[in-house]
Amino acid sequence: MLMFTRKIIGDVYLHQSKSLNFHMIQLMHMNADQLKEKQKEMMARSLPKQKPIKGVKQILIVASGKGGVGKSTTSVNLAVALKNTESNKTVGLLDADVFGPSIPLMMNLHEAPMLNKDNLMEPLVNYGVKCMSMGFLIDKKSSVVWRGLMVMSALDRMIRQVSWDPLDYLIIDTPPGTGDTHLSLIQNIPVAGSILVTTPQKAAVDVTRRGASMFHKVNVPIVGIVSNMTNVICPNCNTKVPLAKDTTDSLAKELKTKILCKIPLEESIMDCCDNGKPIVLSAPNSETAKSYKELAHAVSTFLKNRLIHSD
């Protein structure tokens, strides 16, 4: 299986694409036992020390226990809100969901990245945010059917072979759940903190609790919880109607963290996502946009305090 099925502009880019394809084909021809041993070898080798991403000061992971809770929407609006409120800072957004990339649509970016003179991919930029996603490297209609080790290799290349420098904040939108992607990120790069996104329903809160357990085990600070879709705002009278019993406050207390913001469900948020226009810019006075700006302020404060204490 070829990694890059999309036409790449430039012979140098094509050369790198073929190199990655060859690496992936080698992995595909390994049997299950060989892959398991290779994965153990890679993870063990990277476990003792984390290597910073060149030029990237602080890295934040956005995670969720299950899909469909608004994690990618939160990642996009957080990144754009950070850039919008701190124009002197450089912000990046990495779509680490190799199997289901959604950042290209939400950030209205659909081109293939180019290579610079150092043979590094240049991130695509919109709304002042540098972005990288597997969605830029494969055809829209193509599916990615890879084993965990292949995903780790592709992810490493999106981290290490991208010209992020300089970058103050890198927001990483991770796939739902906890697995190879999360472990690979945490073991290989210094992560400043994590944000847990959930909805108020018990099913979502329960799996968020399990996700928090992973971050605790690997000593990654939990910045806080984003409670998404806490209520519906009527487009006619602006009345807030709760969607479910909100159990996120008790979860935050249990995890000894805090609720960073509670985000309502508005009709406009879906249109903004589908049209690639983050709501913090397209509807800045909406309740949802205000919540995301509140989140950006909390994250900025956390990261600045972390820098002060690390000096």
UniProtKB/TrEMBL annotation:
Keywords: 4Fe-4S, ATP-binding, Iron, Iron-sulfur, Metal-binding, Nucleotide-binding. Signal peptide: none annotated. GO terms for molecular function: 4 iron, 4 sulfur cluster binding; ATP binding; metal ion binding. It comes from the Eukaryota. Gene3D superfamilies: P-loop containing nucleotide triphosphate hydrolases. Belongs to the Mrp/NBP35 ATP-binding proteins family. PANTHER family: IRON-SULFUR PROTEIN NUBPL. HAMAP family: Mrp_NBP35. This is Iron-sulfur protein NUBPL. It comes from Trichogramma kaykai. The lineage of its organism: Eukaryota, Metazoa, Ecdysozoa, Arthropoda, Hexapoda.
